[in-house]
Structure formats: C-alpha cells, structure tokens
Amino acid sequence: MRLLVTGATGLLGLNLSLLAAAQGHRVTGLAHSRNLRGIPFDLKRLDLRQVEEALSIIQAAQPEAIIHCAAIANIDAAENAYQETFQLNVEIPGILAEAAENWGIPFVHISSDAVFDGEKGDYVETDPQNPLSLYAQTKLAGEQAVQRAYPSALIVRVVFFGWSLSGKRSLSEFFFNHLQSGHSVNGFVDTFFCPLYAEDLAATLLEMLAAGLTGIYHVTSPETLSKYDFGLRIARRFGFDPDLIKPTRASEIDREAPRSLNLTLRSDKVQAALGHPLPSVDEGIEKYYQRWLEGYPAYLQSLEVKII
Asked: Which candidate, 12, 120, 173, 275, has a CA 20 to 30 Å from the CA of 33?
C-alpha cells in the first residue's frame, strides 16, 4: 500500500513510518522542520498550513491511505499559541479529511485521551467529552472537523510511550533519562492512564486500516495504572533505583494548562473488532526495554540531519 504519514518525525509518526516500511508499504512521510537520512521511506518537508502546496505534494504521492499524526501536542505550549494550535489541530485535519474523501481513500486521524475531563474514568467511545485545556479542546474540535468532512474516517483516541527522535518526547523517556542519571523525579499518584507502547500502537493502526474500520475507537492498553506506578515499572525493568521516584499529586501542582486526572479509556471496541486483546503495559515496557538493548534509541537519533 502507498501510505502517507503526516508528522513523520514525531514519536508516533516515525515509529509508524518505520514499521509500515518494514511491512512492505511504500511510505511517504511529511515533516515540518526536521530532516532525516538513511530511512526506508520518502520524507518531504513542508508546512501543512500552506494548504495548496501541501495538498499538491500529497496528491503527487498518490497515497492509498493517509494517517494524520501531525499536531501541536505540547499541552502547556498550546495554551499560549491559540492561532497555531487551532490551525494545526482543527483546520488542517478537516482539510486533509475532505481531500481524502474526495480522493476516495481511507483517512486515519490521531486524536487524544485528553478530550475527556477525567471526572469518572473508564471512558467508552460514546461517553460525553469535556476537554479542559486548549490543546484538548482543539483535539475534540479536530475530531468533529474530520467527521464533518469525511463521515467514514477512522478517528483514534490514543495515549502512548516509546523511543523518539529527540529522546525527550514520551513519559517513558522522561523517567528513563532522569533515573539513568541518578536524578530524583516526581511520579503522579493521582493521575491515571492506559499507555500503549508506540510500536504496538503503530501495528494496531495498520491492522485497523487493513480491516477497513471506520468511526471512533479508543486504542490504548487494556490496563490502567498511575503515572507513579508507570515510573516504578520503568525503573524496575531497567534496574534503576525506584526510590528516586517521589510520589506527588498532580492536583497540587500549578501548571499553565489544566489536566484531566483520570484518563482511563476502555479499548473493548477495538479489541472486539480486531478479535484479539491489545498489549498490556508490561508487555509494552518489555518491548521498550528490548529496543534499548538493541540500540534502537541511538539508531533513531542517528537519523536526524541537524539543520544549522
């Protein structure tokens, strides 16, 4: 399949592009500012906000499906950049979805667990949304823009961890970097989530695409834990000192943007559609650890061409 991936240098986009290429797909990745070398897919640098140019480049690639990963994902930074966040998280998804609908190809939009307010947890796809931060509000508005433009698009709400190009993008890397250096770090005991390992998420997205799924799905680990417990599991698997992780309450920390505390999502719908369970957190951490042993983080970082 000729597959186009936006945000192809991001945490999910890069792992997805590499996995898809390894599976034999012909991948065209789009990236805004970063450049890569020695990769098994075609990478094009462009600004998605330059809509006519972007659509021309995408159409020239003749994709048979689009997976839209690009977004403003820094919650605090988004709070102070309304116009850019609205453009990239709301307008662009709608424009790309409309183009995909016109071209008659599947469109997969990556959304977020943050569309919920965290008051109850254990959310299913049909539960009412109530996003708290500007980032979360634009992710929900992006879902709605996609649905209006392309009612049979696939919208996936996710939360994930893994190795990234910079080595600083995921919560797992945050714990790894601090603990490896012997630095103490906070772990939130009142924040709950269902993180899926990025390569497992990538494989699931490709499986969902192959199965022709449409509509909204939660694609998260079937397991729930606090971010403190997640840090402890990272520490123990890598042989770091778990006592370096200090139990902390996120609700007592003043931050730029509000956070939802209980973002536990149920993944029953996608597991039923695919006919198998999604990997647990421990399975993901084991793969994350094995990738470290293989030198995968260093490999990813070696791909970037530093732009001066």
From this structure: 173
Q: What integer is the mean pLDDT of 284-292?
A: 98
Report the alpha-carbon distance of residue 75 to residue 171 in Å, rounded: 14
Q: 2-167+195-223+265-281 architecture in CATH?
A: 3-Layer(aba) Sandwich (3.40)
The answer to whether the pTM exceeds 0.70 is yes
**Bridge partners for 35 per DSSP:** 305
Task: Region of 39 please: left (phi>0), alpha (psi -120 to 50) or beta.
Answer: beta
In degrees to the nearest 10, what's the CA dihedral of 301, 26, 215, 81? 40
Nearest of 188, 183, 184 to residue 171 by alpha carbon = 188
Best CA proximity match to 88, nearest among 80, 78, 99: 78
Phi, psi of 71 (to 5 degrees): -170, 160
Q: Is 155 helix (H, G, I), strand (E, B) or coil?
A: strand
Q: How far is CA 30 from CA 9, 235, 259, 304, in A?
A: 8, 34, 30, 14
Q: Give, to the nearest 10 degrees, the angle between helix 198-210 and helix 11-22.
A: 60
Residue 170 CB: number of other CB atoms within 10 A? 20
Residues 12-70 pLDDT 10s = 999 999 999 999 999 999 999 888 999 999 999 999 999 999 999 999 999 999 999 99
Instruction: Provide the residue ranges of all domains of the chain, joining segments of one domain with +.
Output: 2-167+195-223+265-281
- Given the structure tokens 């695919």, which residue do they identify? 274
Kindly give the residue spans of alpha helices, DSSP state H, lying in 150-280: 171-180, 198-210, 227-238, 268-274
